[in-house]
Amino acid sequence: MVENELDPILALLDRTTRVAVLTGSGISAESGIPTFRGEHGLWKQFRAEELATPEAFERDPGLVWEWYDWRRGIIGRAEPNDGHRTIAAWQDTFSSFSLITQNIDGLHQRAGSRGPIELHGNIWKMRCLREGTVTECRDVPLPSLPPRCPTCGAMLRPHVVWFGEALDQDVLEGAFHRAAACDLMFVVGTSALVHPAASLPLAAAQAGAKIVEVNPDPTPLSRSADFVLRGKAGQTLPLLQRKIIDKWKS
Ligand code: APR
């Protein structure tokens, strides 16, 4: 990506007050967290149907928890990168700002983002299979697998959305509401293959927003995006931020 590709986006930002950002696992790649479908992606190493479906959990909760415990280990050792930090800075830059993420790693919050919409849940949260209560636990590794509910002793499951499961309706409605209420949506680090998340940029575009894709590789969204920044989020977003600040200073 060359710097002057940022100029039309800077011009757009000049007349934009309502910004939304949708992120996927690509934004955490530079923090050392594997993506799902990339070269060494999780779905290249593991079979989703054996680890990330309600049926898999029913069949072998111990195996599923071993995998989530392993992922919590990787995520627990990771640090947010400049891509996360730039997005956190934007929440105080634009009069209306929304962050919607598919990521369950919680790195946006660790970078300072307040209240991102977590479409697919959060790996640090667990849900009681009997009471439905959600608790947060950051123990790495987990002291016992599968973990048990502190109040009723029933088994806990990761508070994440598995394949074949519906997203939380309130969370989803909130995300589509924000998408339809922005003038500009940055789509960062997602293959734009998994719905309903992948429909959010289309909903934003239908409501008149401009779409900027940030991704080193092409995706199905690239054709319909207004602007494409072919670069890594941890390099491209801070560069854009510096140019925004330089422009304001000038
Ligand atoms: N910066 C920006 N984008 C990157 C970077 C980077 N440094 N590295 C990789 N990418 C891009 C890849 O080119 C790819 O398009 O990030 C995307 C990651 O795509 P996926 O691995 O498919 O991850 P994601 O889109 O988040 O997956 C969506 O699928 O498996 C489910 O629930 C899971 O939330 C996940 C959903």
Summed over residues and divided by their number, the pLDDT gives a mean of 95
Small molecules bound in the structure, each named once: adenosine-5-diphosphoribose
The count of strands amounts to 9
Helix percent band:
25-40%
What percent of residues are in strands? 15-25%
- What is the global morphology? elongated
Q: What summary fits the major beta sheet?
A: 6 strands, parallel
Order of helices and strands: HEHHHHHEHEEEEHEHEEH
Radius of gyration: 19 Å
Query: Cα distance, first to last residue?
Result: 24 Å
Structural class: alpha/beta
Number of helices: 10
Describe the SSE topology.
Blueprint (H helix, E strand, L loop, with lengths): L6 H8 L3 E6 L18 H4 L2 H4 L2 H6 L1 H17 L4 H9 L5 E6 L5 H4 L6 E2 L2 E8 L5 E3 L19 E5 L8 H12 L3 E5 L11 H7 L3 E5 L12 E3 L3 H17 L1
Parallel strand pairs: 1-2, 1-7, 2-3, 7-8, 8-9
Antiparallel strand pairs: 4-5, 4-6
Helix pairs in contact: 6-10, 8-9
The chain binds adenosine-5-diphosphoribose.
Adenosine-5-diphosphoribose binds next to helix 10.
